[in-house]
Amino acid sequence: MIIETKYHGQLEVMEEDIWTFNQGIPGFVDEKSFTLLAFPDNDLFFVLQSTNTPALGFIVASPFVFFPEYDIQLGDSTIETLQLEKAEEAAVYTILTVREPFNETTANLQAPIILNTKNKRAKQVILNDSRYQTRHLIMPVGAAKE
Question: I need a surface site. Which of 13, 85, 118, 125 has the fewest CB within 10 A?
Answer without folding.
Answer: 85
